[in-house]
Amino acid sequence: GAGVSQSPRYKVAKRGQDVALRCDPISGHVSLFWYQQALGQGPEFLTYFQNEAQLDKSGLPSDRFFAERPEGSVSTLKIQRTQQEDSAVYLCASSRGTGQETQYFGPGTRLLVL
Amino acid sequence: QQPVQSPQAVILREGEDAVINCSSSKALYSVHWYRQKHGEAPVFLMILLKGGEQKGHEKISASFNEKKQQSSLYLTASQLSYSGTYFCGTEMTSGTYKYIFGTGTRLKVLA
Lengths: 114, 111
What we know:
The structure holds 2 protein chains of 2 kinds.
Chain A: E1 5-7, E2 10-13, E3 19-24, E4 31-37, E5 44-50, E6 53-56, E7 65-68, E8 75-79, E9 88-95, E10 104-105, E11 109-113
Parallel strand pairs in A: 2-11
Antiparallel strand pairs in A: 1-3, 3-8, 4-5, 4-9, 5-6, 7-8, 9-10, 9-11
Chain B: E1 4-6, E2 9-13, E3 18-23, E4 30-36, E5 43-48, E6 53-57, E7 60-65, E8 70-75, E9 84-91, E10 99-101, E11 105-110
C-alpha cells in the first residue's frame, strides 16, 4: 500500500564514521535503484538491484560504498569512512518489473558529513 | 554524457505555455520525465519508449525524437502546481536500467 520509505530522513556524521541508509521499496517491486543527488543537481545513478541480485554497481563512487538487498525487498546502502564529499541526498526508487517502467522514489536521506 | 536540458530556468504566469528540451549526444532508448519540488523526491510524469512517440497527461505532454536524440516536454495552460525542477531521465543502453538524468530545468509559475 504505502510508497517507498527511507530511513533515517536526516543523518549527520563525523568524517570517518560509517553510515547505513535503509530503503523499503513498494511491496512486490522487483527493481530497486539507489541515486545520489547533490544540491541543485539531478539524481546520479549509483546501483541497481533486480530482486536480490545487484546487476549494476557502476555508479558507486568508491569502494567505501556498498549496497545490499539480501532478501529482495529492503535494501541498505552503507558508506564506510565517510568524507565531506559524500554529503548529499540519497534517493531510493523502486519499480514493479524489470522493463522500462515508472520509478517510484522515496523521500530520500539527507546526509551531512562534518 | 549527461543530457543537456534547455532552458535552465523559466518563469511563467499562470495559464502560459512552456517547452522543456532534453538533448543527448548519445542514442536514447527511453526517456522518463520527472518533476521535483524543493526538498521532495522526484515524481514520475511519463515515459516515452519509441522514436517519435508522443504522450499526454492532463495538460502535460511529451515527444521523443529518436533520430535527433532528444525529447521535449510541453506544459500548456500552466498552473501554480507545475512549479518545480523538471528532469529527463534517459536510458542510453537498452536493457541496462541505468538512467542518466539531465541537467534540470527550474520552472516557476507566478499567479
